[in-house]
Amino acid sequence: MPVFVASAKAPVNIATLKYWGKRDTKLNLPTNSSISVTLSTDDLAAYTTATASPAYKDDSLVLNGIPEPIEQSARLSACLRELRALRAALEQADSSLPPLSSYHVHVFSKNNFPTAAGLASSAAGFAALVRAVANLFELPQSPEELSRIARQGSGSACRSLMGGFVGWEMGSKDDGSDSLAVQIAPKSHWPTIKAAILVISAQKKDISSTSGMQTTVKTSSLFQHRIQNVVPRRYEEMKNAILNHDFELFATLTMADSNQFHAVCLDSMPPIFYMNDASRQAIRAVEELNRAAGKTIAAYTFDAGPNCVIYYQQEDEQAVLGLLRTAVPDADKWTSTNASASLLHGY
Ligand code: 2P0
User: Fold this and answer.
1) What are the Diphosphomevalonate decarboxylase-like N-terminal domain coordinates in residue numbering (predicted)?
2) Cβ distance 16 to 35 under 8 Å?
3) Which of 22, 196, 203, 318 has its CA 20 to 30 A from that of 139?
4) pTM of the predicted model, to two decimals?
5) What is the pLDDT of residues 1-38, one digit of tens each?
6) Which atom of ligand 1 lies closest to the CA of 13?
């Protein structure tokens, strides 16, 4: 019996304007728009192969060689359901197409970075899965349209379907049809921006993003201020900073937004701590670097974990990486424990 095969790769994205909070937990509809930069290094990407065959008895997912219980994943089922519906529409329009929408699929995915340690593994994972199955089904949908599906796997996954600088517009519709990712600018627009990643801990985080953000939505008053008064304006400011190549503004907004995201976590009850002492040391090092340079040449940002991402421009690479290696005592250890993923500058 025939087996149909397609593969895809999707990169990690690191938010510079953070997604934190859902207005609909089933559809992953956010309480605010967000912005990210897609990292282009092959070291931080998910690689997925999807196969379909009339011989398969069920859907299955193997992640880094380990079978995952697919039937328990409502998110995965939602993505497959949507992709099958698009394929079924194609088959209805062209009866010569093989009926892949009625076959089960087997999905094999691997990534080479710490899963669930705040390095956006679910973002790359779901983006690669949606792209691979869309390739398998030969779907003509654009990355924006596919981002609507990837969003249902993991919110931040919608931003990993395109490169460069990406916005996720929260949308206003209850069905989520207008909550999707848009490319603000391709990588070629500002190719000199780079990202260094300090892997402070590869351990799985204590509190998942999904449950952390629900605690925040329910309990934080600072969060209400953030989504109503801060993010809408910051989204426009950051977008313009990107379009104008204004690194100082981009960096200042990025750090402010990371700080506010972690402040909102602390304002939740019970409080959520994602950064640790080494994270704070990295912040101090970047502050010191910018002070010494007399201008903002580096921006730190932290997601739902202690690991630090630092954005800088190519021309400042020596200053930025040099200072970090000396000012952050464990940097060499991070580099040597996991050389390809510890200290990266690949955007
Ligand atoms: C972001 N994070 O914008 C923010 C910053 C973490 C901190 O997107 O529940 O894994 O799957 O939609 O996408 C993490 O949230 O959460 C995240 P779900 P997701 O990158």
Assistant:
1) 10-181
2) yes
3) 22
4) 0.93
5) 899 999 999 998 999 999 999 999 999 999 999 999 99
6) 20
Lay out the sheet containing 34-38: strands in order across: 13-17, 34-38, 165-169, 180-185
Long-range contacts of 141-147 (CB under 8 A, 24+ apart): 141/86, 143/181, 143/183, 144/180, 144/181, 144/182, 145/180, 147/180, 147/181
216 and 109 in a single domain? The answer is no
ipTM of the modeled complex: 0.99
Structural domains of the chain, count: 2
Query: Which range marks the domain in which residue 268 is found?
Result: 193-342
- Give dist(CA 28, CA 182) in Å, integer: 17
Residues comprising the chain, all counted: 347
156 lines ligand 1 (CB under 6 A): yes
CATH number, residue 11: 3.30.230.10
